[in-house]
Write a structure and sequence with these properties.
26% of the residues lie in helices and 29% in strands. It has helices at residues 35-44, 59-66, 85-93, 115-124, 177-181, 191-199, 220-229, and strands spanning 4-8, 29-30, 33-34, 50-55, 69-70, 73-79, 101-106, 109-111, 129-136, 144-147, 153-157, 166-176, 205-209, 214-216. It starts with a strand and ends in a 7-residue tail after the last helix. The relative contact order is 0.19.
């Protein structure tokens, strides 16, 4: 099983500046608590006991709030002195992972994937990289992901390419560290554009479909929606 996770928590939150100021968007307050606290409580439910925060912009807010431990989760930090992109941030953070594999999460998205089912799917497919997929009626904000009957990824579509119902990249990955380290991608790159969209034709990437609760707080409307909808997590 996997008991370690990387959280990409270095985003600037450009689209949230009208409602979130002075802190990274992953620290945006939802009902008085930083978004990351909800993510950590979610990970606790699946036995995660070590987190590496991939941080850069105003990382001191995250470090001062969480320190080196949250409940039973040990916390470390992979600090970017300059923006490395999502891929570079993951590559840098995976150096702090003890095992061969880790979950990777976007620090602005709550997606209640059953991580145990996801892991079993990943192992049964003998996949080196797996993506969580979420069905949406309108995918124009996110882009979409195509899969075949075996759930192998067969294509990606850019944002605004289509507005119809499709599956999107839900932002939770399982990544084999050794495979990732062997890719010749440099230090600064996008995990989506420079990795997934380049290697899916030659490498087996699989998509785990999940229709559980999903919300990306990256725009003001959804940030405001979280203030109401995240009450579902208060008694967990």
């Amino acid at each position: 099983m996997i008991n370690e996770a990387v959280i990409l928590a270095g985003g600037f939150g450009t689209r949230l500046k009208s409602v979130v100021k002075e802190v990274p968007k992953s620290m945006a307050l939802i009902n008085g608590k930083p978004f990351l606290e909800f993510q950590l409580n979610y990970l606790l439910r699946f036995g995660i006991d070590k987190i590496v925060f991939s941080v850069g912009y105003k990382n001191e807010f995250i470090q001062s709030y969480f320190g080196s431990r949250f409940k039973t989760i040990a916390i470390s930090y992979a600090i970017e002195n300059e923006p490395l992109g999502t891929g570079g941030g993951i590559k840098n953070a995976l150096k702090n992972i003890d095992g061969n594999e880790a979950y990777v999460l976007n620090g602005d998205t709550m997606f209640e994937v059953d991580l145990l089912e996801y892991y079993n799917f990943h192992k049964n497919k003998d996949s080196k990289i797996s993506l969580s997929l979420r069905f949406l009626e309108d995918v124009s904000r996110f882009g979409s992901v195509e899969t075949d009957s075996e759930n192998r990824i067969t294509g990606f579509h850019e944002k605004n390419f289509v507005k119809s119902s499709r599956y999107i990249n839900g932002g939770i990955y399982i990544i084999n560290k050794c495979f990732y380290e062997n890719l010749n991608l440099g230090t600064k790159f996008s995990i989506e554009h420079d990795c997934f969209e380049k290697i899916y034709k030659t490498e087996k990437l699989f998509g785990f479909r999940c229709d559980e609760y999903f919300l990306d707080i990256g725009i003001p409307d959804d940030f405001n929606k979280a203030q109401h909808e995240f009450r579902r997590f208060e008694n967990r």
